Amino acid sequence: MFWMSGSGISIFTIMITMQFISNPIKAMTSVNQTFTPYEHKDINLLLPKLAFVGINIGLLGMALYKFSIMGVIPVTPNDWAGIISTRSPIQSSQVIEFN
């Protein structure tokens, strides 16, 4: 559904993308709660937890990429053109022609 929403800016697309950003963040903050049913003395859950966090970071990156395609976040130099001031020359020269 994320990729079927398109890259145009509409309320539907922005809501889906915001949901796609918030879910991995919520999942990464509750990693220990997610893995509590599987905690035993014999099982080491470090590698599955790292894989879980890595997949969620990948999903977060996909959502940020979608926002950059939509043009919502500034990623090109033209997006920052209003902030950058133009340089004024220290010296200038002028050519005068006499007829």
Describe it:
This protein has 99 residues and is mostly helical. The chain has helices at residues 11-29, 31-34, 46-70. Helix 1 (11-29) runs antiparallel to helix 3 (46-70). The longest helix is centred in the middle third of the chain and has 25 residues, at 46-70. The N and C termini lie far apart (73 Å). The model has no long low-confidence stretch (mean pLDDT 83).
Q: Which key phrases capture this entry?
A:
mainly alpha; about 100 residues
Task: Please report which band the strand proportion falls in: under 5%, 5-15%, 15-25%, 25-35%, 35-45% or over 45%.
Answer: under 5%
Structural class: mainly alpha
Taking all Cα atoms into account, the compactness measure Rg is 25 Å
- Total number of helical segments? 3
Alpha-carbon distance between the two ends? 73 Å
Order of helices and strands: HHH
Largest sheet: none
What is the β-strand count? 0
Low-confidence stretches: none
Helical content band: 40-55%
Task: Write down the overall geometry.
Answer: elongated
Could you tell me the mean pLDDT? 83
Mind sketching the topology for me?
Elements (H helix, E strand, L loop, with lengths): L10 H19 L1 H4 L11 H25 L29
Helix pairs in contact: 1-3
Question: Could you provide a short overview of the structure?
Answer:
With 99 residues, this protein is an all-alpha fold.
